[in-house]
User: What shape does this take?
Amino acid sequence: MSNNDFKIIMDHRENHQNSTVHNMTPKLDEREIEHTTEQLAVGDFLIENKNTGSKFCIERKIFSDLIGSIYNSRIFNELYKMNETYSHNFLIVVGDIDAIYKERAKLKAMGIVQNVKTFSRNQLLGIMSSVAARYPNVEMIFVNNDDEFIEILLMLAEKLTDGKEIRSMAIAKAKSQENMYRNVLMAIPGISEDKAKKIEAEYPSFSELRAALASDSFKMAGFGPITVERFKKVLVY
Assistant: This one.
């Protein structure tokens, strides 16, 4: 893949000159990624194949913003617009939920989010389930920081420009639409459909999976400590 094959179109709100949280321009410049800034009606970033014009749409949410947007229902309007406008969309959540809990007093004082204290793991599972069930053209991805976010952008750009057929998300999700448990598992980074099926066979419900993780009794071939810890962060802690 060459940077000449694609460009990034970034919403002007992601270019806060005085914000280390929102300003993504330095990260893109550092990697010499071609980008422009526009007022986007949908999403925060578009990855455009310069040869075909096809696009991936990305909504970037830092964890505190995700929580706030769930409480005021803004996220559902954003997901609806993405789902209806583009065939391939990604809701990418940046950050660690545990860090958000630790900083809840600071975030509340800043007016970023008022309800961190009451936000629960079940609510996180709820938004993951909503994306899986109600927005067939949207995938949800979690990353730890903005460096990983940039890596995801580059990986998506590679998929968009490698010349291979891009399968419709709606078709892929329709095949397993009746199984929300599996779809939510697949929203966790590193969990493919095959791995999700193996987990489902061993632990048929969320409650069984969470109990195994909480008691450190989760044991499955092919799932190392990093993957298990990632599971715990999303489903247990």
Observations:
- The radius of gyration is 18 Å.
- The longest strand covers residues 55-62.
- The mean pLDDT is 79.
